[in-house]
Amino acid sequence: MEYSKRILTTPSSFIRNILKVTDSPNVISFAGGLPNPISFPVEKLRESVNRAIDADGSKLFQYSTTTGYAPLRQYIADKYNRNYDLGITPDDIIITTGSQQALSLLGQVLVNEGDGIIIEEPGYLGAIQAFMLSQPVFYPVTLEQDGLNIDELKTAVEKPNAKFIYTVPNFQNPTGLTYTQEKRDAVYEVLKNYPDIVLIEDDPYGELRFEGESLPYIGGKRLPNSVILGSFSKTVAPGMRIGFIISKNKELMTHVETAKQAADLHTNIFSQYVLYDYLTNNEYKEHVSKIIDLYGKQATAMLDALEKYMPENIQWTKPEGGMFIWVTLPEGQSALELFDKAMEADVAFVPGDPFYTGTSNVPTLRLNYTASTPEIIDEGIKRLASIFKDA
User: In the predicted model, what is the mean pLDDT of the chain?
Assistant: First the structure.
């Protein structure tokens, strides 16, 4: 049987494959990007399920509109206007099956085979996988401590058929880094001269800030082809798979709607009704503040353990929020080659390789701190440090 080039050139999810081998209860896993289950408002969601069914009955079980449940889109518009003064309406929003589907839809709508995509390096592997289906050419731009390397960005925007730039400006996956205000303005100054290049700002972690101050988006109202992606997976429940696309570009959103109709008709409407009921009948901010407090303590525990156990020639990022820390080994070492040794010690991480589009055996790795207690984090980092010292 012959298969399409697009599927044969798209790698399977590295992390999903890792999770299969780290499922043992004996393994201390820093490999996933999983929200902590204790943060899920299970009882409140149970109440919302019952209340939504009582209020709307069969509507929760019927086909629905592609763009999504109107009251939920209004809630999102009000929230983003209140927090970021974007001036958007519900018509500027499409509800997607997680932000992962949003990435896939944008790739389908904007990219032909051989077109260019500007991407952070290292970049989010889920986005790389989603975009690979469109068979693009990637133009990686180095992600520095404060954001993209501007000289490299200026070169990338001049590349043939560069269609869009994909960024995660807040607590980036995999590095945990956040673009400074100065770097956001510098990126804007470059992109304002290239109105045909779409700016995608993926922001699934933006609300999970435990240090510093919230910053405005790079594009927002400033760039006509600005797209913002959001999700409730990190703040309510990932299994509900509720994400969304925000853009005031009407033509773009019309094409995204068409692509979504072809993909799944609409996002799970039952989840949309339940989520809307939860958001409007509970103190959402108070719930998120509890998650922030939890993740802040876990991040501190990991940073303290890294400082305590790691050799001096190993470096790591210090996130202001989100879920990840990025570790850099001495030049010449391969984190991928150390993965099996770590598994022998019952501790797992994600080697850096899948976060790059054209590099292998890199000396970097991603650690997730949100799924472990401070005590387990300390023990896991101690084991990793021992392996790295031997290497």
Answer: 95
